[in-house]
Design goal:
18 helices, mainly alpha, two-stranded antiparallel sheet, 453 residues
């Protein structure tokens, strides 16, 4: 009697494999003749690149989305973006719930790892809230977009509005309007506001949503005290998001104020609006209202930092996350002040959180440096443009200084791998590759002091 082959995968390996399979299936569909606008077979490397950037909600594209793909191809891309934003596990769990299938312990563990949650309880309710909340916000975003796009594009404006809303909420940054992203709408307040809100709502994280709504409902009479009643995670995510948006806006406004290639010729309000959008979109959305290659070096460096940090945990954004950088900063100051523990909002940050933050940043930095070095070796481009490309890919942002479309085959492969690693996360990668079982060391090695710093 033959033994059945059983692939014994951890939850992390299962999540990584599910994203990989989704990319391969998406690339196969996009490589079909009727996926392209001209009916010709798309080169597989471009189909693979597009599928990867969609699933990884990055937004970097080697071919224009609006003119290259047919209606079918665009539907495939949008479906991949939605899967990438919510996660394959969420989509599959949602289907099981809709079919009244039982969510078993293994499925709950998958959901727990996919959303980086601390408990296995309430998973079904959590998935329902995520799906309903996502479709509600995306639907509202589409309706507001239609105010501008339907009068401009007619019936096609409905499809453009739906596509843009899902892409913005999932922090994908892909659009089907033109090859120049949202340049034409740089001074349109409605498009700017709707896009910014969708990006922030997607990037702030689902657990912050529920925490804020719970606190508001519980403290209707004392709304001024709502922030103090939030969890530590929500406080950090909201505070860091606000600080980074304001700081980024101020930096871009100052460094681009007199730049005629970006906002130099705008009115004061238009300059503030464009600066705000640039600050928000770098927190891993990928839409652009001003050409990234025309930014001053100072603004480009600020954008690189904001892209690297990204959004908040348990959301649709990438990067090392706001909570991670906050933990590292307070830990660094605690060490400099000879404090044994780091504190935030009068709460002690656990050593486990600090260790994980250090690991996340370290692995992200290694991936980023390796990707930048490899791309520099195969691409004859300015080093700032290369760094912009790799940080954008690793943090799943999607902003480019017009380098993506110029990449050769090796360059495309490097960015594809970087986008995938950025989407699954550096820690998930290390856990997935670690096949050794945990063992308890009875004998410990001696400790010896070393000089650091």
């Amino acid at each position: 009697m033959k033994k059945r082959f059983h692939l014994n995968l951890t939850t992390t390996q299962t999540i990584m494999l599910s994203f990989l399979l989704a990319i391969l299936m998406g690339s196969a569909l996009l490589a079909l003749p009727f996926s392209s606008a001209d009916g010709q077979v798309m080169p597989y490397i471009d189909a693979l690149f597009t599928a990867t950037t969609s699933i990884c909600v990055t937004g970097l594209v080697t071919v224009p989305t609006y003119s290259t793909w047919s209606a079918f191809g665009q539907i495939v891309i949008l479906f991949l973006i939605q899967i990438g934003g919510l996660g394959v596990v969420t989509i599959m769990s949602g289907l099981m719930i809709s079919l009244h299938r039982r969510i078993g312990i293994k499925d709950r563990m998958l959901i727990q790892d996919a959303f980086n949650l601390n408990t296995l309880s309430g998973m079904v309710k959590f998935i329902r809230k995520v799906l309903v909340g996502t479709f509600l916000v995306e639907g509202l975003g589409a309706l507001f977009y239609m105010i501008v796009f339907v009068p401009e594009f007619g019936a096609k404006g409905i499809w453009i509005s739906i596509f843009n809303s899902i892409s913005a909420f999932c922090n994908a940054g892909m659009d089907i309007i033109s090859e120049s992203s949202l340049y034409e709408y740089v001074n349109n307040p409605l498009i700017n506001i709707v896009t910014i809100l969708l990006i922030v709502m997607g990037g702030i994280g689902y657990i912050v949503w529920w925490d804020v709504l719970h606190v508001l409902k519980k403290n209707r009479q004392q709304k001024l005290k709502c922030f103090s009643n939030l969890t530590l995670h929500s406080k950090i995510a909201l505070a860091m998001t606000g600080i980074l948006i304001l700081a980024g806006t101020a930096a871009v406004f100052i460094f681009e104020y007199n730049n005629p290639l970006t906002i130099g010729g705008f009115t004061l309000f238009e300059k503030l609006q464009a600066s705000l959008f640039q600050s928000v979109t770098t927190r891993t959305a990928g839409f652009a209202t001003i050409p990234q290659e025309n930014l001053t070096n100072a603004s480009a460096l600020v954008s690189l930092l904001l892209m690297f940090i990204g959004g908040s945990p348990v959301g649709t954004a990438g990067g090392i996350k706001t909570v991670t950088i906050a933990v590292l900063i307070v830990f660094a100051f605690a060490t400099m002040n000879s404090k044994a523990e780091a504190e935030l909002f009068h709460r002690t940050v656990s050593k486990q959180a600090v260790s994980k933050a250090v690991a996340v940043v370290s692995m992200a930095f290694i991936i980023l440096c390796t990707s930048t070095l490899l791309l520099a070796a195969v691409t004859d481009a300015d080093v700032l443009d290369i760094a912009y490309e790799t940080v954008s890919a690793a943090a799943t942002v999607g902003l480019t200084r017009s380098l993506t479309s110029e990449l050769n085959t090796l360059g495309k492969i490097i960015i594809i791998v970087t986008m995938y690693l950025g989407r699954v996360g550096p820690i998930s990668l290390m856990i997935a590759l670690n096949t050794k079982k945990e063992t308890k060391n009875i004998i410990k090695n001696p400790t010896e002091e070393i000089s650091v710093g």
